[in-house]
Design a protein that fits this description.
The chain is α+β, with helices and mostly antiparallel strands and about 425 residues long. About 30% of the residues lie in helices and about 20% in strands. The chain is built from nine helices and 14 strands. A four-stranded mixed beta sheet has the order 5-6-4-10, with no helix packed on it. Strands 1-2-14 form a three-stranded antiparallel beta sheet. A hairpin with a 2-residue loop joins strand 11 and strand 12. Helix 2 packs antiparallel against helix 3 and helix 4 packs across helix 7. The chain is globular, with a radius of gyration of 21 Å. The C terminus is likely disordered.
């Protein structure tokens, strides 16, 4: 198996330099990432009993398949793993139910009212609807984590980071063992499309006091700060609880670029989404994998052992929904937005998104090698900052140079790089 993995690693290096990739540096890196994810997750799918001929076939497919086909296969590979995790979680948490009880719970979920996403921006503390929560076993998060480890072979913990820096703070650790291509964590929190950036708390300097932001290549931003470290219940969650909120500095710190953004990113007509968020969701806050936001950037001389992977969860999979730790801000439809340089503009109407059914666009962390009892490290790719934090060392400068586009403003100090948002633990000073 080690020999086959070496072949995959060599294929990753070779295909990343392929002339068939886009000449646009920004898109080229996205294609290279998808290509790597295709190889890694397909390798995971082969299993420990894989033969060399199987590996050769996958490498050959990776060199010929279109980006769209590889993206589709990556989604299927990731979704297969999410389904397995969800089945294990059901086994751990759900008591035996009669068909009548199941039908009653379904009716309760469908009767939950939708509420305004403006609550995220103004910090409203309206009471949750008076609906009973679906019954689960009275287990605490550590107990659920232990049960999942027995099923998956690993669990995640949050401990003091091993990075030798005074600002290292806490980090994400894997206890147990996983193979390359394994989904090890999910990035939790509130999902914002570009149409709703201005509703992100702290806008336009959204990263000034929030270390738990990340963006996808398509502009989707996830704010994990409200999720914190989860809780010990399955509950109706709308993203308003903020157990690890960092106080916002006092005083007027608005800059010229901030004012420019307020002009260019005018609020949409009416309330966000014409009715707010996707509403309350019954989410499993004891999810042992919802800790991707605690992964640190590696210290100098250490390579990352995971990478981010866009994951479009199909909302038709209602039985799996409690284990996807995200809620959507805004309308379930996506407002059409066009990007010009660093800015997103509303272009009118709603986008179909090319989806046969609605999805929740989130992120997972995928292992890039076998991991056993060690801290999780993720390449933050912050090289385009005018002043990077002193703890930041580029992992691959050529790769970082491809990420020349940012989401926010014209001042590099206020920007979040695409695909990887700046993440600093509460104890990190960052800049």
């Amino acid at each position: 198996m080690a020999f086959l993995f070496h072949k995959f690693q060599e294929a990753v290096k070779t295909l990343a330099k392929s002339p068939t990739f886009s000449r646009d540096p920004r898109h080229l890196q996205f294609e290279a990432d998808i290509n790597r994810l295709f190889l890694y997750t397909s390798y995971k799918l082969l299993g420990r009993e894989a033969e060399e001929a199987d590996a050769e076939e996958i490498i050959d497919i990776a060199s010929k398949a279109s980006l769209a086909d590889q993206q589709k296969q990556v989604q299927e590979n990731i979704h297969s793993q999410i389904k397995d995790v969800s089945a294990f979680m059901d086994h751990i948490l759900l008591p035996e139910k009669t068909s009548g009880e199941t039908h009653e719970a379904s009716n309760q979920i469908n009767s939950i009212p939708r509420q305004s996403g403006l609550r995220f921006a103004v910090g409203s503390s309206d009471a949750l609807p008076n609906n009973p929560i679906p019954k689960t076993k009275p287990l605490r998060l550590p107990e659920v984590s232990h049960g999942l480890k027995e099923q998956l072979g690993y669990s995640l913990t949050i401990q003091s980071s091993q990075i030798p820096h005074k600002d290292a703070g806490r980090g994400l650790f894997l206890e147990g063992e996983v193979d390359v291509g394994s989904v090890i964590a999910i990035y939790p929190g509130v999902i914002y499309s570009p149409a709703y950036y201005r509703y992100i708390p702290g806008y336009p300097r959204i990263d000034a006091q929030n270390p738990y932001l990340i963006t996808r290549y398509d502009g989707i931003l996830i704010n994990a700060q409200p999720w914190g470290t989860g809780s010990d219940t399955r509950e109706l969650w709308d993203g308003t609880s903020s157990p690890e909120m960092i106080p916002v500095a006092n005083g007027n710190t608005e800059t010229g670029s901030d004012r420019l953004w307020k002009v260019l990113s005018k609020p949409l007509e009416g309330k966000p989404g014409g009715g707010g968020t996707s509403g309350f969701e019954f989410l499993e806050r004891r999810n042992p994998l919802a800790f991707a936001h605690f992964a640190n950037h590696p210290a100098k001389g250490i390579l990352p052992n995971v990478m981010v992977c866009p994951y479009d969860f199909p909302l038709s999979e209602k039985d799996l929904r409690p284990y996807i730790p995200n809620v959507l801000f805004g309308d379930e439809g996506t407002v059409k937005m066009k990007r010009f340089g660093n800015f997103w503009f509303k272009s009118g109407g709603f986008a179909e998104g090319g989806q046969n059914s609605p999805v929740l666009r989130t992120l997972v962390l995928v292992a890039t090698r076998a991991i056993k009892d060690e801290e999780i490290f993720l390449n933050y790719r912050l090289s385009n900052y005018k002043r990077c934090p002193e703890w930041y060392t580029p992992v691959d400068e050529e790769e970082d140079r491809r990420r020349i586009n940012f989401l926010f403003g014209s001042n590099p100090e206020n920007k979040i790089p695409e695909n990887m948002g700046e993440k600093r633990d509460n104890h990190k000073t960052g800049k």
